[in-house]
Design a protein that fits this description.
The protein is mostly helical. It contains nine helices and no strands.
Length: about 180
């Protein structure tokens, strides 16, 4: 049976000589840098990956602190990149916040990045046009289009604005 990295016990750092300890820290730092060379990761995701690969928690914390101190890992920049990416893909603020939480971004960083995030009205109008084809007569189809926008994480006030822009009349059925 093949052993997974999670099954590997990290070394007990208290029992290691100074040279061995330095080697463990260096290998952990090298692995962290290698993981970040593949793709950007949040601090919590990087720490979790290092521990999953059998690194000691103290060594993982050291590597993370070193990389952050030298600017190789920055949760704020990572969050900004994620927000830009998901906005370009046509997602709303609720869905983007959910993705930031899933990726381990701290609430303070997420809030700071999301302050400047405006919903993409063009993307919302494109989705409405794709769903409705300019035909606003079928209330059921308009409701489905609204539900699709909600699933993409747009707030009701943004959906209302997009519907008004698209030309759909909003009545008490939506409120």
């Amino acid at each position: 049976m093949m052993r997974r990295a999670r099954d590997v016990q990290p070394p007990d750092l208290r029992t290691l000589s100074r040279e061995e300890l330095e080697e463990v820290y260096r290998k952990t730092l090298d692995l962290a840098a290698k993981l970040l060379s593949y793709r950007a990761l949040s601090a919590s995701a990087l720490r979790e990956k290092l521990i999953d690969k059998g690194c000691a928690e103290e060594a993982a914390d050291y590597a993370l602190a070193y990389l952050q101190e030298h600017g190789f890992q920055d949760d704020r920049k990572y969050a900004e990149s994620t927000v830009r990416s998901y906005t370009r893909r046509g997602y709303g603020t609720l869905r983007i916040r959910q993705e930031l939480r899933r990726r381990g971004i701290e609430r303070d960083d997420a809030d700071a990045v999301m302050e400047d995030c405006e919903p993409d009205l063009d993307a919302m109008l494109a989705l409405l046009d794709k769903r409705l084809h300019g035909d606003l007569s079928d209330r059921k189809e308009v409701n489905k289009a609204v539900a699709a926008l909600q699933r993409r994480g747009f707030l009701w006030e943004d959906i209302r604005r997009a519907l008004n822009e698209y030309g759909a009349s909003i009545d008490a059925d939506f409120d």
